[in-house]
Amino acid sequence: MSTIDPAGVPPAAPEREDHGFKRVLGRLDAIGLGFGAMIGFGWVILTGDWLLEAGTMGAVLALLTGGLIMAVVGLVYGELVAAMPYAGGEHNYLLRGMGARWAFVGSWAITGGYITIVAFEAVAVPRTVQYIFPGLSQVPLWTVAGFEVNLTWALVGALTAVLITAINIRGVKHASTVQIFVILFLLIVGLMMLFGAFTRGSVATMEPFFTSGTTGFFLVLVTVPFLFVGFDVIPQVSEEMHLPARQLGGTIVVSVLLAAAWYVMVVLTTSSAMSAADVAGADIAVADAMGAMFGSTAVANLLIAGGLAGILTSWNSLLMGASRLLWALGNSRMVPAWFGRLHPRYGTPANALLFVGAISFVAPFFGAEMLGWLVDSGSPSIVVAYALVSVVFVLLRRREPGMERPFRIGGRGPGGVVLGWLSVVLCLGLISLYLPGMPAFLSAPAWTIFGLWWLLGLVFLLRIPTGIRPGADAEHRLVAEVERRRGRDRGRTGDRG
Fold first, then answer.
1. For a designed S-S bond to 151, which of 111, 139, 172, 442 qualifies (C-beta 3.0 to 4.6 A apart)?
2. What is the DSSP-derived secondary structure letter of residue 413?
3. pTM listed for this prediction
4. Is the bond leading into 10 cis (omega within 30 degrees of zero)?
5. What is the 3-state secondary structure (H, E, C) of 137-152?
6. Distance (Å, rounded) from C-alpha 121 to C-alpha 41?
């Protein structure tokens, strides 16, 4: 049975209930959350590898290509979030356009990606702090994959997890205010990098401009899902924003373009300060380049502090995103309803925040090798979610042309559908990079983390009732069916008693 009438007008859905989220975020908060989520720690530790693998301009072209890909995906997200500004983002779009089980797959995919990056940031904090305080590691605990885990090193990451989780439980506005101030510090560091490059940098040190041809280009391109994940945090917290729907959609594209500009700036300023030979011998190329430009170890440490700021903004944003997605899954009864409860005073998904916070608390005790494993294991799931959202965008354009779309991409003609299909193709292209024999094929530990997450997801997926068709009221029908089955099961248990 079709969920729309022949005129393309969706059926009337039950009025969207007030879930209790507090609408306290504005446009600057939205851009700060999206941009801050994307500017994590990757630019600090990966820039040297990009320059060696692809050369200065090869890395720039790969990052610009990745930015354009994510901008197209961001346009798709922008239209959908403006049409459905509900907590949980992708979860709502897929429920309406593809039904309950596909909604779970997409939500579980992006949640897994978020959680792996939150855990990544928890491990990255002590690694960054140790650059400034080399004697940080004391009291050996155990060795993981050749890395000796020390108690003091791990506690830096674990206690930071407690602090960030507590701030988020206290309220989304508190977390966003912290985000804005940390981003301002990060931007000051960026301005110093630009000043150093223009006054002390050299075009000559940027050579070679290209290294390893297309191979180098793709080695940088495969990091794009990890580097740009986070613009989609804006849809997750859309129910907590007091923005006109049209502006809400536009903030996603703005945040993607700002992140692309940041990554390109970092590559150009670093290569202007250090030759390829110096980059190859550097510990952390970006920090060493900053120190070389200003002739100061203190300035290099300031850059590392900027990296720490990036970690905190990314961690903060993605913790918000993961918790809202888990809340949406719990509210739809796809996972235990415990995740779908809000704090009675602060209006935040406290249970979901505690769950993700607990994972980030434990992550540093597995050592620095976790950094690579987490990046690799989360990226494929992220791209799968992006691909599904792109598909549902095309489906909703065809099935529900009368849907209100305050932020409509491509005009009234077929341009929007073309952009939707382009997003699908680009996402499938990124997914192909993770196949066997391709540059981003996962290591055994990364496959293990990826597999365990999806094995757990399969348990929940098989419990979701079949036959919940797509539609504006799909969530209401799903919850009603789950509650009906639970009532039936309780009745049978009572009869046996």
1. 139
2. T
3. 0.84
4. no
5. CCCEEEEECCEEEEHH
6. 7
Distances (CA, A) of 82 to 79, 252, 335: 5, 11, 26
Contact 208, 276 (CB under 8 A): yes
Residue 56 DSSP class: H
Is 147 within 8 Å of 368 (Cβ atoms)?
yes
Q: Identity (one letter) of the amino acid at 51?
A: L
User: What whole-number distance in Å separates Cα of residue 316 and Cα of residue 318?
Assistant: 6
Question: Digits of tens for pLDDT over the chain (497 positions)?
Answer: 334 444 444 444 444 555 556 666 777 888 888 888 888 777 887 888 889 888 999 999 999 998 998 899 989 998 998 888 887 888 899 999 999 999 999 999 999 888 888 888 898 889 888 878 889 999 999 998 888 999 999 999 999 999 999 988 887 777 778 878 888 888 888 899 899 889 888 888 888 888 888 888 888 887 777 788 888 888 877 777 777 777 777 888 889 999 999 999 999 999 998 888 888 888 788 888 888 888 888 888 888 888 888 888 888 888 888 998 999 999 889 999 899 888 888 888 899 999 999 999 999 998 887 777 776 787 888 889 999 999 999 999 999 988 888 888 887 778 889 999 999 999 998 888 777 777 667 778 888 888 899 999 999 999 988 888 888 888 888 888 888 887 776 666 555 55
Mention every residue, 6+ apart, whose C-beta is less than 8 A from residue 91: 103, 106, 107, 325, 328, 329, 332
Rounded to the nearest 10 degrees, the angle between the axes of helix 444-461 and helix 100-132 is 140
Rounded CA-CA distance 188/186 in Å is 5
Q: How far, CA to CA in Å, does 454 sit from each of 146, 304, 355, 396, 460? A: 27, 35, 17, 27, 10
Cβ atoms 272, 198 nearer than 8 A? no
How many angstroms separate the CA atoms of 388 and 73, rounded? 11
Cα(369)–Cα(403) distance, integer angstroms: 47
Q: Which two tokens stand for residue 379?
A: 């990226």
Q: What share of the chain is helix, strand, coil (3-state, %, to 5)?
A: 70, 0, 25
